[in-house]
Amino acid sequence: MTSRQEFGSKTTNETRLLTFDFSSFLGVGETITLAAASCVVWSGTDPSPVSMLSGGTSISGALVTQLVAGGLVGVLYVVQMVATTSAGQVLPISGYIAVVAGQPG
Questions:
Q1: Is the pLDDT of residue 105 over 80?
Q2: What does the domain layout of the chain look like in residue ranges?
Q3: For the whole prediction, is pTM greater than 0.70?
Q4: CB-based contact 3:93 (threshold 8 Å)
């Protein structure tokens, strides 16, 4: 199972908090014990896409968040969050985010 979501776009100078919701995959009393983020290029060119990840992940109940910053204009990135649960499930969710040029002025 891989769930996908769209995060829209951000500018190169914008830092965004991405939220991954695992609530529909958790059983009663099951919790997220570990979460890890990765970032790859879906389209375009960026020699270091992992540099978009800013800091570590944060777990709050069934939600996991990750800050993203920077990136290159015209690149579409896939940020994947993999959560491990107290029941032993390993749950990946991928989200797409595009980097666009900022508005002048």
A1: no
A2: 3-100
A3: yes
A4: yes
